Amino acid sequence: MTIARTICLGFLAVITLGTILLMLPLSTTSGEWNSPIVALFTSTSAVCVTGLIVVDTGTHFSLWGQAFILLLIQIGGLGYMTSTTFLLLVFRQKFDFRQKFAIQESFDRPFVQGSRSLIRSIIATTLVFELLGMIIMIQPFSADYGSIRGFWLALFHSISAWNNAGFSLFPDSVVGYQGSWPITLALSMLIIFGGIGYQVIMELFNWVMSLRSPRTARLSLNFKVVTSMTAILLAIGTVAYLITEIHNPDTLKDLSPQTIFLAAWFQSVTTRTAGFNSIDYGKMGDAAQLITIGLMFIGASPSGTGGGIKTTTLRILLNCTRSVLRGSEQVVVYGRTLSPSLILKAIAVFMGSGFTITLTTISLALIESGKFEFIDLLFECVSAFATVGLSTGITADFSAWGHLILILTMYVGRVGILVSMAAILGEKPPSQLQYPEENLLVG
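^ thats the sequence. predicted structure below, dont judge the formating
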């Protein structure tokens, strides 16, 4: 039982428990037993913080069902190891080295020392942001639905946004609030900070606090790469949606100038693994859909609540390409040389993700032969793997086998392609064997 297998089985256990809860009659508005495939798909989507749905969350599930979904989203967003470790801390159970190394594996960082304080900081950060988002959104929702319903809507959407889940209690997501500054900015704030990761948030907080003292804390390479790539991708996405959809009467054309900007900005934010939408993606042009697929594939940042290949992986690959074009044998980012093992890991993530999406898209094309356009199938598979949750509106129309493929894709995307492969292959035995070096024609 390796750490990778522990993580994978942990997510499976939570998904199974969620499926059972969502099948219960008290979870549905009809009071009848829920369909097993609907319960399984919804549970997987919630735990994997994806947001793809086969039924309308706000009308199909009762208040209990929505609460179960919210709990699954919170557990999935925090991660299995973080959630179980938090429970150990609450019940004052023994916190052994295996648990610490599992946390290290989950965050891909050397946090073996001080793991307790790390978990407490993550929980505190989560609660602060979710509470802040809820407070901002209470007034607009309460004005439309009353104080009690407005409170629940604000709480649900705040937790869903922070965890980059994309679940909404409205049948059209947040299209009805596409021109609302409080809702758009609150959801955007939660999505961005939830996606950049706890480490970056903590480092930003420490940096701000250090400004009061003569000694200024030095920002890490991870912080610089994550924040710069996030800002660049947000700007590129906003401009790209404005250019491609400004003349589309089904999306942006007939909106006011303010709403056009808000909608373009929000799509740029939510596309990278959040799953909310304030315009209909099914009515977008092919160019905008391809841009969306690319942004979904990139995703959020390491240790955040989003998926995708991550912003750091993209930056490593871009700098690798620049080094090759300049004839350099070193990959340098912000004055620091990247190790060969880190470069190989980025390549493995990119290739493994591309292979998984290709395989699932081909499988769906064979199973759902002739029913959907290819770009819609590709859109759905990338959305599932990158745990985004955006859809062109075809998710509910898949067959049972198609839904099972999407379930598996969401699971692999949330656990991580490298962790999934490590769980299957097991740990590599140590070896002192080295092979001779030789050249190979490339390009």
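DSSP finds 18 helices and two strands in the chain.
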